[in-house]
Design a protein that fits this description.
- The chain is mostly helical and 98 residues long.
- It has one domain.
- It has 2 helices and no strands.
């Protein structure tokens, strides 16, 4: 999903999730740099936090898109078809009644 293909609500939700993740993880990143851990662990922790900041919200959007396409989209299509047919049958009944 490209940035230009997202709706305004999706962009706002993604930015909110990134801000929440930053608020949660910045103190821990600071603790890693301030502690006596070996320098070999710092890149591993940073990659894990970057994964949590970027990949997890994107996976959430992909999962929501999948759930919508599999479950909600067919139901909404059926709902629209029923509404159209009900209106059609109502018009036919009104014509017969005249």
């Amino acid at each position: 999903m490209w940035w230009r293909d997202q709706t305004r609500g999706q962009r706002i939700a993604l930015l909110c999730l990134i801000i929440v993740a930053l608020v949660l993880f910045v103190p821990r990143i600071y603790e890693i740099f301030a502690s006596d851990l070996g320098l070999a662990l710092v890149p591993i922790y940073l990659l894990a936090y970057l994964f949590a900041l970027i990949a997890l919200p994107l996976m959430l959007f992909a999962l929501l898109k999948f759930v919508y396409s599999v479950f909600a989209c067919p139901y909404l299509r059926l709902f629209r078809m029923r509404r159209y047919l009900n209106n059609k049958y109502l018009r036919e009944a009104m014509k017969r009644g005249r």
